[in-house]
Design a protein that fits this description.
This is DNA topoisomerase. It comes from Panagrellus redivivus (Microworm). It catalyses: ATP-independent breakage of single-stranded DNA, followed by passage and rejoining. One of its GO terms (cellular component) is RecQ family helicase-topoisomerase III complex. With about 750 residues, the chain is an alpha+beta fold. The protein has five domains: about 160 residues, Rossmann fold; about 180 residues, Topoisomerase I, domain 2 (Orthogonal Bundle); about 120 residues, Topoisomerase I, domain 3, CATH 2.70.20.10; about 120 residues, Orthogonal Bundle (Topoisomerase I, domain 4); about 35 residues, no CATH class. Helix content is about 35%, strand content about 15%. It has 22 helices and 20 strands. A seven-stranded antiparallel β-sheet has the order 14-11-12-13-10-9-15, with helices on one face. β2 and β3 form a beta hairpin. α4 packs across α6 and α6 runs parallel beside α19. It is flat and about 95 Å long. The structure holds one DNA strand of 8 nucleotides.
DNA sequence: GCAAGGTC
């Protein structure tokens, strides 16, 4: 009988594939590595009876590094890293897996690669092949292509095996070589330079990486947008009417104007009117949609926003829950539930929960689960979902994450919330005002999904054509405010949008720039850049290189896609990329003094400002550094900055007699403080829940012209759609606003012209 | 001492 060795990307996949192929009848044995077992069973390969052994690796087996002569960090050899020899070898902590592969290869005639069906999976497959062929060159090597681990998918894959796709293997080799050469070269250049020029404040590695640096760039760009923000005053009219003891507020159809005189003219016109006329009373059904099936990026964003966790901690909790069988595989790009998945039994399993049992039962009595699917699939894993019931006592610290995943799952497969909205339109001397009300009829998914809310607001009855004699019109003055600093969810969304990192690595890159002291979290868990991060971004910008922008990474990504499509070779893309980075490197090396100069300028400005304020402890005293001082609340600013700097120091350094680098490294004043907000809100107070210190932005960001990678995001953290103004003053002008419906009380007041 | 990508 032919002996077939199968190798999957991880133990979990190997187990499940073996389970399907063997009809749940396999023998399990230990391998050399603790985590990677052997699953044996009999079956058929290409029409012949065969003995199968299924085992696995744990991701990449190999690692790339520079050879002898380039291990040492020296300024003289740093530039040579673009051409120095690199060696691919088995990662030291994968040696046991390698041993298992070798042992199993000796007795096999056929090797089938069952790694994930993506670029990295293809490359991991090639690494497995090289290990196996080294002990048994006669192996016949195949590739199984499957999109999910179901009986149909894996049997189809086994009956239709193909060969590895060398183009995809090459693309990943190209990526890893570029990442290593470019990362190492710029890291050594930056580190060696700063250590020699500002040794007292710097003792760590100042790394550069194609993912970490654009991530830092996003943080810096937002910080600067806030610093450079100039508030703009505006005026608006507000209609008021009292009926049945209810104060009804009407929103001006022109929303607001940036011209005081014109607004006052409208105000006078309205005040001169004898009455207001109700021109229409419209009722319409409204619904609030249940959430889409959960993928990794959405999960991370939810955990950050709703549970106030870091993405890294959230993923760690999800992985613990996955390993102990409570939830499905947490790394997935899929937000569509496969048709054949048995959602009903997963819902039924939650029927006894004291928290959401009745809701789960209700789903079943109303016709069963009806998932709201998205449009993405990685063809490997289903959306994240709950697997078995649990209690708070048994999960302890991981309960909140389990609860989020379970409530999200139940909400996703339940039904939308529905209600009726009422819009009352009133005309005062041709000026139009609207009042909106909503009556919620069926809370639907909201009963289980405590992370969302929908506030109903009843309007008293109005009749069409009715004249209101006591309709009042007030004029309010307001001012646009700067955008918020990015929180982790914003940052992940930006990385996702620009293709920086993968769903599995977003959180790691963010941790990396924190660890490097490039950024820190302020008390509101929003990112402020440190002087080191600012200096790095400024230095490359000043030299004219877009190192902190996402474009370099996306150019590389396009090259990789070309390699996969066969339109370009690995050698071609590699040479082109190395040449362009080497040119940047050479010019950077010539002008590297800029980096320490800029860094010193930042630190010096802060120390001078601290001394001027009579405070001799630069670590936390500095106020009004740079241009950040906004009148009115400097003390509060200094406090916040100090706290942020202290957190920044939590990275494990510090201590000792030398001044701790981060003390100097974080600005202690500036953007943490909101500019004075003198707008008398015409809206009810914002929905409860975590609110940042800075108020919802009304105007924001630099012009989104060519090359600006920032999406315009409103105060709710959602990308803002472009709308067209229809007021006489600004007719046809385009602007960004909050994506939510106008009658949605959680809608924020975000506003920004598209310039 | 350097990257990013897999995964435990």
């Amino acid at each position: 009988m032919a002996r077939v060795l199968c190798v999957a990307e991880k133990n979990d996949a190997a187990k499940n594939i073996a389970l399907q192929l063997s009809g749940n009848r396999f023998q399990r044995a230990e391998g050399r590595s603790k985590y990677n077992k052997l699953y044996s069973f009999d079956g058929q390969f290409r029409g012949q009876p065969a003995k199968f052994v299924m085992t696995s690796v744990s991701g990449h087996l190999m690692t790339l590094d520079f050879g002898q002569g380039y291990k040492e960090w020296r300024p003289a050899t740093t530039g040579e890293l673009f051409s120095a020899p690199v060696i691919r070898s088995v990662n030291p902590n994968m040696l046991q897996i390698e041993q298992t592969l070798k042992e199993q290869s000796r007795g096999a005639e056929i090797l089938v690669i069952w790694t994930d069906c993506d670029r990295e999976g293809e490359n991991i497959g090639a690494e497995i092949v090289s290990v196996c062929l080294s002990v048994n060159p006669r192996l016949d090597v195949y590739r199984a292509r499957f999109s999910e681990i179901t009986y149909q998918a894996v049997t189809r894959a086994l009956n239709n095996v193909i060969r590895l796709d060398q183009n995809e293997v090459d693309a990943v080799d190209c990526r890893s070589e570029l990442d290593l050469r470019i990362g190492a070269a710029f890291t050594r250049l930056q580190t060696l330079h700063l250590q020699s020029t500002v040794p007292t404040v710097l003792d760590g590695v100042v790394s550069y990486g194609s993912c970490q640096f654009p991530t830092l760039g996003f943080v810096v760009e937002r910080y600067k947008a806030i610093k450079d923000f100039v508030p703009e005053p505006f005026w608006r009219l507000v209609g008021k009417h009292k009926r049945d003891g209810v104060d009804v507020e009407f929103v001006w159809d022109r929303n607001r104007l940036f011209d005081k005189q014109i607004t006052e003219t409208f105000h006078e016109v309205c005040n001169d009117a004898d009455y207001a006329t109700v021109t229409s009373v419209q009722k319409a059904p409204k619904s609030r949609w249940r959430p889409v099936a959960l993928d990794t990026v959405e999960f991370e964003k939810l955990a950050v926003r709703k549970l106030r966790m870091s993405a890294k901690d959230a993923m760690a909790a999800a992985e613990r829950l996955y390993t102990s069988g409570y939830v499905s595989y947490p790394r997935t790009e899929t937000n569509i539930f496969p048709k054949e998945m048995d959602l009903a039994s997963l819902v039924t399993a939650q029927g006894n929960s004291p928290d959401w049992g009745p809701f789960a039962q209700d789903i079943m009595t109303r016709g069963g689960p009806n998932p709201r699917n998205g449009v993405k699939t990685d063809e490997a894993h289903p959306p994240i979902h709950t697997l078995k019931p649990a209690t708070k006592q048994e999960l302890t610290r991981d309960w909140a994450v389990y609860e989020l995943i379970t409530r999200h799952f139940l909400a996703c497969v339940s039904r939308n919330a529905t209600g009726q909205s009422t819009t009352v339109k009133v005309d005062v001397s041709d000026e139009v005002f609207n009042a909106n009300g909503i009556v919620i009829e069926d809370r639907g998914y909201l009963d289980v999904y405590k992370y969302d809310n929908w506030y109903g607001k009843m309007l008293p009855p109005y009749q069409e054509a009715e004249r209101l004699k006591d309709f009042k019109v007030d004029i309010n003055e307001g001012s646009t405010t700067a955008p918020l600093l990015l929180n982790e969810a914003d940052l992940i969304a930006l990385m996702d949008k620009h293709g920086i990192g993968t769903d599995a690595t977003h959180a790691e890159h963010i941790e990396k720039i924190k660890e490097r002291q490039y950024v820190a979290l302020n008390p509101d868990k929003r990112f402020i850049p440190g002087f080191l991060g600012l200096a790095l971004v400024d230095a490359y910008n000043e030299m004219g290189f877009e190192m902190s922008k996402p474009v370099l990474r996306s150019t590389l990504e396009r090259g990789l896609v070309d390699i996969c499509n066969g339109t370009r070779t690995k050698a071609d893309v590699l040479a082109e990329q190395l040449q362009s980075y080497k040119r940047i490197f050479d010019r950077t090396e010539d002008r590297i003094i800029l980096l320490s100069d800029i860094f010193k300028r930042y630190v010096g400005a802060q120390n001078l400002a601290g001394a001027a304020a009579g405070n001799h402890a630069p670590a936390r005293g500095g106020r009004g550094a740079g241009r950040g001082g906004r009148g009115g609340s400097t003390a509060a600013v200094a406090n916040r900055g100090g706290a942020a700097a202290q957190r920044g120091r939590g990275g494990g350094r510090g201590g000792g007699n030398a001044p701790a680098a981060p003390s100097f490294n974080f600005p202690t004043a500036g953007v943490q403080n909101p500019p004075p907000n003198n707008y008398q809100s015409s809206r009810p107070p914002q929905a409860p829940g975590p609110r940042p210190v800075v108020q919802a932005p009304r105007n924001a960001l630099p012009p989104p012209g060519n090359g600006n990678p920032n999406p315009i995001v409103c105060g709710c953290g959602v990308p803002a759609p472009v709308r067209t103004a229809n007021t006489s003053a600004n007719r046809g002008r385009r602007f960004y606003g909050c994506a939510k419906q106008r009658d949605d009380p959680s809608r924020c007041n975000f506003f920004q012209w598209e310039t």
